[in-house]
Description:
The complex is a heterodimer. Chain A is mostly helical.
Amino acid sequence: xxxxxxxxxxxxxxxxxxxxxxxxxxxxxxxxxxxxxxxxxxxxxxxxxxxxxxxxxxxxxxxxxxxxxxxxxxxxxxxxxxxxxxxxxxxxxxxxxxxxxxxxxxxxxxxxxxxxxxxx
Amino acid sequence: xxxxxxxxxxxxxxxxxxxxxxxxxxxxxxxxxxxxxxxxxxxxxxxxxxxxxxxxxxxxxxxxxxxxxxxxxxxxxxxxxxxxxxxxxxxxxxxxxxxxxxxxxxxxxxxxxxxxxxxxxxxxxxxxxxxxxxxxxxxxxxxxxxxxxxxxxxxxxxxxxxxxxxxxxxxxxxxxxxxxxxxxxxxxxxxxxxxxxxxxxxxxxxxxxxxxxxxxxxxxxxxxxxxxxxxxxxxxxxxxxxxxxxxxxxxxxxxxxxxxxxxxxxxxxxxxxxxxxxxxxxxxxxxxxxxxxxxxxxxxxxxxxxxxxxxxxxxxxxxxxxxxxxxxxxxxxxxxxxxxxxx
Lengths: 120, 343
């Protein structure tokens, strides 16, 4: 059974430390940007979200990719398992976010343009 | 049955046993199932957080102003540093976990035990840090006032710097005592604990200090509409920061005060929107619970490693399975960190 596995049993300690270094660097960059909040990123928008937030989200996904692929060893799994897990989650997450965030933005507009007063 | 598929190598039925769907053992596959469902649970929570945030996009607290503490550095504004440290601790404990799994592949019992122990310690440090972060959040720093309308107003001086309640509130005579059931009716709820100052004391202090201004929940933006707003103090308002009112408007606002708020709980939040506190407690709490259960599970597996259970089984796959869970907890934190502290 276990000799069916095409992967593993070669020590990949070196790769583990490499990924750790990578994750650390990315986190440091995130924290640095979070403290500085440079104007050219923070004050410019793309798709109604500022560039800094886009940078954060992209870096987060980058980290997530390495955690799942290297640490959870998804890279060594069969394609069927990879797709079953990753595609399902990504699809449902995007779907949920799409619905909720669009709706929330709509509710915000309703509050803003109505006579409802909250700041008193 | 028609649905029998034979595999090339061992000529077995797909469902006849001895076969591993998706090339993964039963236990690992079930762990992946669990992780997928748990990931969707966290997605639900974070998406709900996003919903509330987009709904109140104009008055959501700025994390940099909320989490500013670092141990043994009292009074120093250190936004993000501590949570960054926590993130490193969790990532590092993920690394030791994966090193334990790696050592398990080579049947090195001592190494597996050592790395598992490091992972457990990392997890405990993280949970402890989270508790400390909660303590600061619950205790609050500057104090604020909640108006009759339910919004939070904070106090700043003529330079726009935050001012603590204790720095200006005037002590008025008169005794206050919280009303509990034994002093009143048996069917009522105990009154909430009393804040340090009454509304009247804060209002009197505000009147006596003419340099004080009010900062509202609303975020100022460089739009023509906000620039023309006469209620805002000139020169102090900056793009994407909270609005600071003129002294005249501030006085009107202070008259609306309903309760004094110190710190945050599920009902009040001195930092701004109440929902922020609710989501913070719920999501980081739920994540913290995952870390805690991860530590417990890791500890059980650690004991089994030390006792030599997996040595007898000739496989350290159990370590791999808890490893998957532990990495997942780390993965969730990466997202919680981004959406609560960075974005």
